[in-house]
Hints:
Mean pLDDT: 91
Radius of gyration: 29 Å
Distance between the termini: 75 Å
CATH architecture of the largest domain: 3-Layer(aba) Sandwich
Structural class: alpha/beta
CATH class of the largest domain: Alpha Beta
Helix content: 40-55%
Amino acid sequence: MKKNNTVIPPFLRTIGVLFLGTLLVLVLARGAMLGLLWPEVIPNNPASDVLKALYIGVKFDIRLTVLGLIPVALILGIPPLERLLTQSRPFRRLIDLLYMLAFAAMALVYIIDFGWFFYMHTRVDATLFELTGDPEIARSMIWESYPVVWIALGLAAATALYALFFSKTLARHQATPRLGWKRRTGWSVFTFVALFLLGYGQISANLFPLRWSNAFFSVDKNIAILALNPVQNLYDTAKAAQGVPPNVEATRESYPRVASWLRVPNPDPEKLNFLRTVPGTPAAEQAKPLNVVVIIMESLTWPRTSFSPNLTGTPEDTTPNLAALAKDSLYYPLFFAPTRTTARAIFTTMTGIPDVNRSGGTSSRNQALVDQNLMMNEFKGYAKYYMIGGSASWANIRGFLSHNVEGLHLLEEGSWKAPNTDVWGLSDLDLFREAADALTASPKPFVAVIQTAGFHRPYTIPEDNAGFEIKHPSEAIIKNYGFTGADEYNSLRFSDHALGEFFKIARKQPWFQNTVFAIFGDHGLNDTSLNMPPGYLGCRLQSNHTPMLIYAPGLVAEGKLTPGVDPRPCGQPDIFPTLASLAGIPYRYNALGRNLLDPDTKRDEMQFLGGDSESTVRLVKNGYCYIRENGEHLYKMDAPVLEDLIDSDPERADHMRRYAQDFYNVSKYLLFNNKKFD
C-alpha cells in the first residue's frame, strides 16, 4: 500500500472546499445588497465605515457558514462516520438531501430579505412572522407585489447548483488514511478550534463574541443594514420579539394624566405626542458654554452610604467624599433608578425612558429598540464623551450609544493607558484620572458620562490606590448597612475614595469652575440593612434607591445654583433635561424626565419604579410607596412598624395605583416610539 505523504488530511481539505464555496455564495449576496445601498451609503459615509460594515458582514457570513458545516465536519472528523460516508451511497445521498433542504431554507430567507428591503428598507426581522396571522392576505400581497414564479425558479436553480456543488464535493472525498491516533486527534482538534474561532467571530481582550450589535456602530442605519446577516438578524429579533409589546389603547387612556404631569404644551391623545421644546441659547452663541459631566457610580445604593439613617446606633462614615460634596451641592435624597441593573440604568439615563422591557431582555440588547432619541444630541457644538473602564460590548452599550449619538467619543477598554485591574477593566481611580485628562484635552465644551464599575465582585483594591486604607469593620456595621462582608464594605469606600481623588484633580483644571457635575448610582442593591424602616423595605426600595448630587461650584459662586436638600422623589430620566436647562441650551425632549429646577415641577412630585417582571409597578409619592406585584400594598416609607394601608387609605391607594400603571404604560410605549429627531 502506497504511503500517504499528504500534509493536509483529506477531511480537512473537503471541509475547506465546502466552507469556501458556501461562503462565496453569502459574500455574493452581500455584494448585491451593497449594490442596492450604494446610492445611500457611499455619498453619505466615509469609506472606512463602509469597509468596516463589509468586514463585520463577512464575519457574520463566516459564522453562518461555520454553523451550517458543523454536522458534516463532525461526520468527516470521526473516522467510522467518514468511512460510512465514502462507502455507503444511501448515507451520502441522505446528507446531500438534508443540505439541499437547508440551503433552500437559507436561500428563501435571503430572497425574502431582498423583498423586505425593497418594501421596508430594513433587513428582514421578526415582524415577518406577523404575516402568518392572516395567511390569505399575506399570500395575496406576496403574489401581487413580487414575481413569485421567477423567484421560485431562481430559488430552485440556486438550490440545484449548490446541491450539485455539495454532492460532487462529498463524492470526491476519499477516506482519510490512518494517521495514528495522536496525529488524527491533533488535526481534529485543530479543525474544531478553527471552526469555533471563526464562528465566535472575533478575538479581543474582553472575549465578547460577535453580536448583531456590532453592526450598529454608525448613526447611519444603512451601514447597519449593510453589515447585518438576514438569517442571524431574523433569529436575533425573533428572540427579542418574545417581549411584551406596548398596549397603545392603555397608553391612550393614560396619556392625559402623564401629558399633564410632563407639561406637554400641545397634548394629542390620538397621536400620543409627548414632545416638549425648551428655548435657550445655543452653545455657539454663548460666551462661555457650561460643561456637563454625568458620573454614574456602580451600585451606589443609598442605605449603604453616609446619608442613610442611623436606626441602630451604629454610625459609620462609609462615603465621606460623597458626603463632603453634598454640603456644596443640590442634594436629592429620594433619587431612584426606575429599573434595576446597570444596562437598564444606562438606557434609562440616556433616553429618559424607564427600561420596563423585562420579558424581552434589556432594551439595549433589543434590536427593535436600538433606534432611540438621546438628548445628548441636543448639546449642539459640544464634544460628547462616554467613558467606561471596561468593555462597552457588554449589553450592547457600544451599539446603543454609537448608533444614536452623533460624533460620540466612546472611551473604553483599549482606549486607556492604565492596565485592567480585574474583569471590570480599569480601577475606578485610574478611570477617573484618565477621564480628567481626556476632558482637559477636549477642544470644545464637553458633555461627558463617566461610568464606574469597581464596586463589583471581586471587589478589587488596586496596589496603586492613592493612599487608600483598608478597614476592618465590626459585624454590627456590616449588618447595619447591609454589606455582605468586609470586602464589599471596603470596595464601596474605595469607589468613594476614587471619586474624591477625581475632584482633587478636577479642581486644578481650567474647566472645573465652568462645569456642572451630576453624581448618582446606576442602581441600588437587594440586600436588606438594619438601618432602613420596614415600610421602605416592604417596597424593596433599596434595590433602586441611590443619592444624587448636582455639584456646580462655579454656578454656586455666581448665585445661579443654591446648595441644599431637595426632598422630592425624582429619578434618572430627569438628569439630562435638568442639566440641559442649567447649561441654558435649547432642547427638545420626548421622554419622561423633567427639569428638576423648574418650580412648576414641584406641584406633583412622584417617581415611578418598575420591578423584576412586566406586571410589577411601584410609585413613590409624599412619603408613601405603592407596590403591585402578586398582590398590591401601600406603605408609609418611614413607619417604624410595617402596616399595609391599601384598604384603610383607599383614596391614596387608588391615586397611586392609577399613576403607577400610567407611567408603566407610557414607558412601554415610548420604548418603541422615541425615534431620533429630524
